[in-house]
Amino acid sequence: xxxxxxxxxxxxxxxxxxxxxxxxxxxxxxxxxxxxxxxxxxxxxxxxxxxxxxxxxxxxxxxxxxxxxxxxxxxxxxxxxxxxxxxxxxxxxxxxxxxxxxxxxxxxxxxxxxxxxxxxxxxxxxxxxxxxxxxxxxxxxxxxxxxxxxxxxxxxxxxxxxxxxxxxxxxxxxxxxxxxxxxxxxxxxxxxxxxxxxx
Length: 199
Ligand SMILES: Cc1cc2nc3c(=O)[nH]c(=O)nc-3n(C[C@H](O)[C@H](O)[C@H](O)COP(=O)(O)O)c2cc1C
Fold this sequence. Notes:
This protein has helices at residues 15-29, 52-56, 65-74, 91-99, 101-110, 139-151, 175-189; strands spanning 2-7, 33-38, 77-83, 123-129, 155-162, 196-198. By secondary structure, it is an alpha/beta fold. Helix 1 crosses helix 7. The two termini are 29 Å apart.
């Protein structure tokens, strides 16, 4: 089982990085292979909305997504971690998500409407943090994650949302969230649903 970590923050070593590191530690402890993609490091252009993938299921753009698509395909579980930027995931990871349109196109080409009601490619999880504590803080990010995993033919299987963390080190003040991340990683390695938690 491959558990793929998608690091969505432009800030190295920040809150979501630390939570996802902890989650993948949990996955590795359960014997899973783990791989990491850092959105801040890869060169991924936005979707062109050219319709090319609609015909073939394959994106026409040949950038770092050429190496990322096979990992999205191979992973039995994906854990995406993203800070809230203006109520959304940051642009760097949003580019990867938008390029998931090719995966959605492939799903449309290969599965019937009935078959698309179920997911056969594993489980997807979300870790997200934000500085404020508003009621709707994670609404948009949650929807983005849910429909990204839908495109990838994966069940949306758990979320860990942490409010009120801003500085890089703030997450160390929420040890229960770090513990929950570790458990999420373990569950991902076991192909199980995780909790839906808000701190
Ligand atoms: C460009 C930008 C936009 C942000 N927008 C929001 C926001 O809309 N709501 C919020 O609560 N926090 C916002 N934040 C704060 C981050 O979500 C918060 O500091 C987060 O914990 C950072 O996670 P990281 O350390 O993993 O990058 C924003 C930060 C930046 C840099």
